[in-house]
Structure formats: structure tokens, C-alpha cells
Amino acid sequence: MDWMDKLLYPLQWVVAWVLAIFHEVFTAIGLPAANGWTWVLSIAGLTLVMRAILIPLFVYQIKSQRKMQLLQPQIQRLQAKYKGKKDQYSRQAMAEEQMNLFRDNKTSPWASCLPLLVQMPIFFSLFRVIHNMPNVADGSIGAIGGFTQNLAQQAEASSVFGISLSATFLETPGIGVKLLTGVLIVIMASTMFITQKQMMAKNMSETAMANPMMQSQKMLLYVMPVVFGFGGLYFPLGVLFYWLVSNTWTMCQQHVVIRNMPAPGSKAEKEMLERKARKGKPVAQPEIKGGTATAVEPATNQSRQRQQPVSKNRKKNKKR
């Protein structure tokens, strides 16, 4: 057991147990224990469980992104205030004012990275479980959680289109391996690109898009799929299925969020307001501390009622 296995062993133990439980459930309903698709479904079950656990963190991410969108005008005013000032005092003062702004509004520019950062240890744990699968099967190392030698032997004997779950694009020979893993790598990178592109095209305000910090976000739009695409050459087939399910979850989840909780000033918000206007539903705007934005209360039925006529005598009494 190398240092990575020792470091990730607690998470590997959890991942292995979840895999074993899903495998037992699918075999209990009649699926073959040594069938590759049974293990693919078990990996999909693991992915859905992990992504469901991360939903509260995703909600926090969305709320933080919305607040960051609303804060863009104030951030731009800060940048204009300290524009051209290169001294250490000015840079520190600008950083402190930005941090105070983020703290007062309970947001952070790093919030959008949290779901990916939290998911990475889970991903590496699954990677190591599948990587160590042959060693568990032949008894070279002991069981990992619920992933016993018997289960590892079944997983090793299974295949998807004749390809083992531990096969990789670079290390496993055969045209079938290259074709299947290559297709999954392209789909994985494409879904990641589409998800980020959808966010920028529909859920970003014009103010946010004009921000200089947005240039780095645009770079990530192209860099991240390329990084994961090259990394996919080393991922076992089972891990590629994990990312395929995870990215599909992200796309569907983001579609729902963009439709129902769009960022202020974005194209998606305009579309949502148009839908609500057609249905006669009012919309309240969020409040931002330390700025000019204030909460707009939705119109009530009482405020929309026609004003009743008042006689001249009653008007004079009111003036008095």
C-alpha cells in the first residue's frame, strides 16, 4: 500500500462499501454478479449518492454566484478607485475592502470551486479502488471495506463490450479499448465544456462578462476540458463511467438552476421574468448589503386595486 492509498484509505473504504452495497442490490434483483453492466450500474449508483450528498454545497455555490453577480458593479467601482495605484498600501486596502464586501454579503469568489474540490478526493478514491482491483482479486492486498476478494474477482471477470473496468486508453492494448475509452473521454470533455458554456452564455450578466476577472473564467472554459481529456487517457474505464454520470448530473442540475434561479441581469433571468409575467407571478429582487441594490417587494393584490374616488369634502379634511 503506497502513500496515496494510506492517505485516501478512509474514503476508499466508504467508496468500496457503497459499490459493494449497490452491487448486492443489483444482483438481488437478478442481474449477473460478474457482468460488466452490473458494475457500471453500481458505479452510477455510487455517483448519484455522492452527488446527492453534495446538493447542499451546490445550493451554497449557486447562492454565492448570484451574490457575486450582484456585487460586480461595486467590485468594478473598487477597481476604478485603485486603478493605477501599484503601491503595497493601495493593493492591501483594495483587498481588504473586497474581503469586507464579500464577508458582509456572505459570499466568496472561491465558492464556485467547492463542489469540484470536494468531489476530487472521491474521484481519486474510486480511481485507487479500481486500480487496486486486480491486487485484491489475487490476494496481493486485503479487502478494501466491503470490496472483498470474491467481489474483486467478479469485477475482474466482468467486461463491457469485452473490455475490463480496469482497462485504460494508454496502458491496455487493443483497438476496442482505444475506441471505447476514447469515445467516453470525448463525451466527458464535451459535457464539461457544454456545462460551462451554458453557464456563461445564459447565466452571466453583461456587467459580469465585462469584468477583467472574466477572462480567466473564459480560459478555464477551454482549459478544464483539455486537462480532463488528457487525464482521461490514464483513467480506468470504470472511472470514465463515473465522470460520465457525474457530468450528466451536473448538466441536468444546472439546467434546472438556470431556469428557476438565474443570475441577476442574465439572459436566463430575462427569460424567467417573461415566463412569470405571462403567468402573472411577481418577482422579488435580492438585497445586497453595502450597495445600491435593495429588496423589491412583489406587488400585492391590494396595491393593484383601483383607487376609489374621494369626495371634495373628504379631500379637504385630509389636507387639514
What is the straight-line distance between the termini?
90 Å
Helix coverage percent of residues?
55-70%
Query: In sequence order, what are the helices and strands, one letter per element?
Result: HHHHHHHHHHHHH
Q: Specify the overall morphology.
A: elongated
Q: Number of folding domains?
A: 1
Unreliable stretches, pLDDT < 50, 5 or more residues? 292-307
What this model shows, in words?
This protein is mostly helical and 320 residues long. It has one domain (3-270). It is built from 13 helices and no strands. The model is unreliable at 292-307 (pLDDT under 50).
Helix and strand layout, with pairings?
Blueprint: H1 3-28, H2 36-53, H3 55-81, H4 88-104, H5 114-131, H6 133-137, H7 149-157, H8 175-202, H9 206-210, H10 214-231, H11 237-260, H12 267-279, H13 312-319
Keywords:
elongated; 0% strand; 320 residues; mainly alpha
What's the short version?
This protein is mainly alpha-helical and 320 residues long. It is 68% helix and 0% strand. The longest helix is centred in the middle third of the chain and has 28 residues.
